[in-house]
Design goal:
This protein is α+β, with helices and mostly antiparallel strands. It has a domain at 5-151: 2-Layer Sandwich (Alpha-Beta Plaits), CATH 3.30.70.270. The chain contains eight helices and five strands, in the order βαββαβαβααααα. It has helices at 21-38, 64-75, 103-115, 133-152, 155-167, 170-177, 181-190, 193-210, and strands at 5-12, 47-48, 53-57, 80-87, 126-129. A five-stranded mixed sheet has the order 2-3-1-4-5, sandwiched between helices. β4 (80-87), α3 (103-115) and β5 form a beta-alpha-beta unit. The longest helix has 20 residues, at 133-152. The chain is globular and about 50 Å long. The termini are close together.
Length: 212
Amino acid sequence: MKKRHAVLIADVVGSTRTRNLRAALGQRVERAAREHLRKKWIELPYAITAGDEFQAILGKVVNVPEVIFDLRVKLWPLQLRIGIGVGSVRERIQRPVNRMGGEAFQRARRAIEAIKDEHLRYEVLTAFRTGNEGFDAAANLIYALQDTLLIEMTRKQQDTVRAYCEEGGIGGAAKRLRLNESTVSRSLSRGYFWQMRDAAEGLGKLIVAARW
C-alpha cells in the first residue's frame, strides 16, 4: 500500500486588495516554514507559487490541525483559504514542492477550489479531500463551524491569540500586550480561541482513528 501524505494549498482572501502582498506573504510564510520544519510538521519549506498562493507537503497527516491553526495565527491579519488533500505522492519528495504531483496534490487542489465555489450557502475557509467520505464530512463540518467563528474575530482578538500562542500563556500575553490577565482571558474567550483549540484537538483524534 502506498504511503499517504497530506498536502496543503493555501491562498489569501482578497489578495487584490492587499498592498505589497508578495512581500508581506513571503516574510510570514518564511517565518512559519522555519518553525514548522524544526517541529517536523512539514517535509519541505513552503513554496509560494502564484503570487498569493503557497503549498507544502506535511510530515505526518496528524500534524494537519496544528499546521492549519498556526498558519492562521502567524499570517494574521491576512486571511487564508486552506485546502488539504490526503493521498499518494507521485514523485520522490524534493524541492520545489510545486513541481511535485500525485493524488494528494490533486485532492488539495480540488479542496481549495471547492472553497471558492460561488454557490456555497455560507463562507468557508478550510476544506478536506481525503478519499474517505465519512472523514471528509466530519472534518469539513468541524471547520465550517470553526471558520464561521474565525471570520467574526476582530483584529484585537487576533493580536491577543497570537500573543497567547507566542508567549505560552495568559501571563506572558498580558505582559506583552500591557494588559491585565482578566482582559486577556476575556479577549481569548470572545475571540473563540478555546473553541478553535478544541476543534483542532477533535480533528486530531479523527485522524488518529482513520489510521493514516
